[in-house]
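Ticket closed. Logging final result for ABC transporter permease.
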Amino acid sequence: MILGGIDIVTLIATLMAASTPVLLAATGELVAEKSGVLNLGVEGMMIIGAVAGFAAAVGTGSPVLGFLGGALAGALLATLFAVLTQVFLSNQTATGLALTLFGLGLSALFGKGFEGVRPPATGKVPFGPLSEIPGLGRILFSHDWVVYLSLALVVAVWAFLRFTRAGLVLRAVGENAEAAHALGYRVVAVRMAALAFGGALAGLGGAYLSLVRVPQWTEGMTAGAGWIALAIVVFASWRAGRVLIGAYLFGGITALQLQLQAAGYAIPVHLLSMAPYVLTIVVLVVLSAIHRRGVQAAPAALGRSFHAST
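Final structure:
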C-alpha cells in the first residue's frame, strides 16, 4: 500500500524495529524510577551496551552473546550508579549526568578498534507461512527475537508492578522508603536490583542499535535515545502501556523521516533528523496535559536519598 510515495506496510514494520532500543531503555528506567531512584545515566548505559555488545558479538561470532554482553555492561554501569547513590548517598542527578559522560567517553575509547567492522547478523524469527500473509506478515512476523522480547518485557513489567507482591514492595519503596524500611523491607537492596534491571535493559537497547539497527559501531551512535527514553517515562506517567505508545511514536516518526528522505521530499535533512525528537516530546506533552486529571503522579520518593538511620 503506497500513500504519497510512502509504503505504509514498510513504514509500520520499520517503526517496530526503530522503536526497540528506546522501548527497552524506557521500560528499564520505568522500573528504576518506580523504586524511587532517578537515573539520568540512561544514555551512558545505552552507549556502553552498544560498544560492549558489538565487541562481544564480533569477538565470539554470536549475536546472542553480543546482546548478553551489552545487557551485562549496562547492568554493571547501573550498579556503579547504585553504589554511589544508595550506599555513598551521592546526588542522584549529578551522578546520573556524570554516568552519561563517563559512558560516552569510555565507549569512544574502547570503540576505536571496531570502527568499520561488521557484526554477525541477527536472524529473524522463522514464522513460516505466517510471514507470507500479505501486509500483516510483514508487519507482525518479520522481526528478530529482540523486538518480540521488548514487547514481552513491557507486558511482564506491567504485570509485575500490578499483580505481584514484589512489585508492590517496589512501588512501596518508591512512594515512602522510610515506611517500607520500618515494615522490614530492604530498601537499598530493592533499589539496587531495580537499577541493575534498568541498566541491563538500557544496555540491551544499546546493543540492538549497534548489532541490528545500524549495524556497525559509530561513536555517539545513541544520539540522544537515552534522553528520549527518560522523557517517555515521565510523560507516560510511569505506566508501562503508555511507555510502549511513546516509544512506538518515536520509532514511527523516525521511520517516517527516513521514508520521506527516500521518497525525495524537498524537506531539509536537518529538519527531518530533528523531527522524531521534537514531535515525540510535543505529542507526549499534549497527551500528558489532556490526561492530567486522574493520571498517576511520579513516585513520591523519586530522587530522594534514603538514610537507613531515619
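The chain has a mean pLDDT of 89. No further action required.
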